Structure formats: C-alpha cells, structure tokens
Amino acid sequence: xxxxxxxxxxxxxxAEAIPAGGDVWKIxxxxxxxxxxxxxxxxxxxxxxxxxKLEFISAYSSKQAxxxxxRAHDIAVILLDVVMExxxxxxxxxxxxxxEIDNHAVRIILRTGQPGQAPATRxxxxxxxxxxxxxxxxxxxxLYTTMIAAIRSYKDIITIEKSRHGLHKIIESSARIFxxxxxxxxxxxxxxxxxxxxxxxxxAMYLGIGGFTATSVGDGFVILAGTGRFETGIDRRLDxxxxxxxxxxxxxxxxxxxxxxxxxxxIGYIExxxxxxxxxxxxxxxDLSTIDIxxxxxxxxxVSVAFDNIYLNREIEENHREMxxxxxxxxxxxxxxxxxxxxRVSEYVRLLSDLAGLPDDEVRRVEVASAVHxxxxxxxxxxxxxxxxxxxxxxxxxxxxxxxxxxxLLQFSRRELFQAATIIAKQHHExxxxxxxxxxxxxEAIHLYARITAIADVFDALTSNRVYRGAWAVSEAVNxxxxxxxxxxxxxxxxxxxxxxxxxxxxxxxxx
Length: 512
Known about the structure:
By secondary structure, the chain is α/β, with parallel strands linked by helices. It folds into three domains: 4-160, Rossmann fold; 180-306, 2-Layer Sandwich (Beta-Lactamase), CATH 3.30.450.40; 335-510, Orthogonal Bundle (Hypothetical protein af1432), CATH 1.10.3210.10. The protein is 50% helix and 13% strand. A six-stranded mixed sheet has the order 2-3-1-4-5-6, sandwiched between helices. Strands 8-7-11-10-9 form a five-stranded antiparallel sheet, with helices on both faces. Helix 6 (183-197) packs antiparallel against helix 9, helix 10 (341-355) packs antiparallel against helix 11 (360-369) and helix 14 (416-427) crosses helix 15. It is elongated. The chain starts with 23 loop residues before the first strand and ends with a helix.
C-alpha cells in the first residue's frame, strides 16, 4: 500500500478528449510505486492535445529512467517522483537530464508526497524543473491542466528549436550547394538538402520522400534529378513522365509562377534573374507545417541565387569552350591534311577520360582543353608544318618546340580549363619510358590529362591522311598503340582504349 501522505488523490472529474492524430506525445512516469503509474495512466487515458494522444513509458527508478531517456529522445513530459531509491534520486535525475544529456526541451514536473524532503522554493530555484506538485493537491482536473501547459510549452520549444536548426541547415546547405557547379549535381543536392531540412526535428532523414527538380528546356521542363519513384524520370520531359493529375498541379504552379503545397506535398517554382525557370517537387512529406513551408521558401530563395550562378558559370564555360575550339580550329586551318582532327581528338579524350574514372567536371575540362594541344604550331613555319616529305633533324627539332611554345601561350590564366590546356599542350609528346619531349618526363610524372591526350592524338593522326603518307587501317593503328604500351603510352590507359575500341570507332564514324 502507498502511505497516506504519498497517495495521488483525484476528484470525480472528467475532461473532454480531443480527437487523436497519427502521432503521440511521449510521457515518462518515474515513480517507485506501481499504483502511481496505474492511476496516472487511468486518469489520462482519454487525454489528447493538438490531435495527439499520449504514449506512456514507465520507469520505477532513476536508473530505469536514464535508460529510457537515452533510448527515446522525443519524450515531451516527465512526471517525476523525488524520493525513490534515495531521498534525492529525482533531483539527481534532473541534473542528469539537463547537464549530462543536455536535454532542455523535455518538461519536468516533480510530484512528491513528502514535500519536506524537497521544499518547493529551494527546488524551483536550484533545479531546472518546470512545475512542482504535491501528490495530495493533484486532482484529475489539475493533472489534466498541468499536462496541457507542459505539452504546450514543449511544443513551443520544439517549434523554436526546429526553426533554429532549420535556419542553421539552410546556411550550411546553401554553402554546400553554391560549391556545386554541375547543374545535375546541384539539382540532386537541392533534393538531398530539402529532405534533411524537413527532418530537423524528427531524428532521421525521411528516406521515403520522393521528389524531383526540373528545369525549363524549350517549351517544357526536363527532370534533372529525382528520388524515390522519380529516379527513373531523370532526363525525361515532365509531360511525358508525370501522371496527368500531378502534371496539372505542376503546370498550374508554372503558369501562376507561384509555389504551392498541401498537407503532404510541395511544389516550388523558382525563376532566376537570368529568366531560367525551375521546379522542385516533394511528396510524402509528413505533416508540412507553417515552419516547414517557411523554411523551404527561405531555402528556395538561396537556391534561386545558386541556379543563377550555375547558369552564368555555364555561359562562361560555353564562351571558353567556343574560344578554345576556335583557337584549335585556327591551328588546324594552317595544316592542309588534318581535317577535323581537333574535334575528333576531343571526343576520344572525353571517352577515355570517362573510362579512366575521372569525375564529370574533369571529363568536360579535359575534353575542351585537349582541343588546343597543338596550339604551339602557330609558331612553326608553314614550310615545316606542311612539308610533304620526312622532316630532317633540324626541322624536327623546330617542330618539337611547339609543345613548350603552346604551354607558354596558355600558362598565364589561373582558370582550371586553361591550366589543364597548358599541361596538355606541354606534355602530350612525353613518353611513358622517358624518351619524349620537351622535358623527358617518365611514367606517372606525366600528367594523366597528357597521357590520355597522347593516345587520342596518335590514334587520330595514324588513321588520318597526312601530306607525307596515307591513313593507316584502324587495325594497324590499334596494333601500334598496343605494341607501344609501356614504352610510349601508359599501359593502363592502352588497356582501356583497346578494351573499348568499338566506342572509339563509333566516334570516328560519326565524323565521316
């Protein structure tokens, strides 16, 4: 039996319950008397607040309570006895909660039948508790109203924390997405960060959230990135992939130029200063709150700026690409027999770089940079450049200077594209065995970009007509490259080239 002064006394009162939603408020009852647990659960059995019922967790000692708190991080309220295994077990548990596990959100209500052991004034001043009740004063109605006040306070704290964490995540996420210059990687990053943003107070990523980002192309939108059921739609048009009802919602957001949302999904419309239009769609988002929507909208403002940066960067890259290929074409025009050598070499380089496992941005960089591998030939006299017979030793020595000259022309830019072009121009005639020029580099001392370009350049040169000889058969050119693996060429790259020769031949055919 519970001593008379330690007994909960409830008047004959009933509270009207609020309809429950799909979630619950977790209540931890910490008391060494089982009857206290039973009566508390009985009285609060019909309780609900903000559409959520209560879920009770029982602990009969401070040690059990610690175990519960370390397992469950979303307990809203603790109904805590002071005197359990020791006279101050409850107070020590408060210190553990606030100081050791740093939980300042959970609301702690001390309930005691022995107020002399822990006087209210001292406890409230010295310990971070939220309410103090003597068990003899707790009627059912008072427990009910106390619970409403505690849960409302917890809910407000979580809302503030969610907003704070959300804003922190926006700052952190924005910094990351501004680093992504590939449009597809950026679009994928936006989806990932938004999923995390919606999870700031839920303890884990919502792996079930599906969504996509799309950008305007021509008269429609194309999916750049997708998660969940939208992964298979990447690179497809929305009007060819989406179900009619969702397509209508997306088109409405586009035509009205506004974002929209319902309880479980969000459509974000983003128009950049450059006029580019983009869409973000998220579905199966549990209970989008006002704060969720506000955080998403703030994030999308940053996304809009980042989209602008990417589009501007792409425009700069395209301008550089055009300039580089124009320079390559200028050199090519001086040579009477090379045809479309520059563009074919660039395509071979793109494919071999991809096969070698370079990241997408590097593949694009090396592809473009290789177009000016022979830019130094602008300084070579026509009489040598277009000589129809074999070069003599003096002429060959003059021809060899084009590598260093090309590097000298390109080396002054700090942009990665021109730095890559400088490396390729200078080193693409180096040999794996150290017998090349201009520096006699050997093995991996030769930059990978130059080793890739060397194979592409020689393959195209051998299979093209030159003023001093006709084109070799493809089989002869391939055999030459195989025979010179480990001497002239990087053997690992030769293996990739030979093992995928059909893809290289497909490129060659596309230029015929």
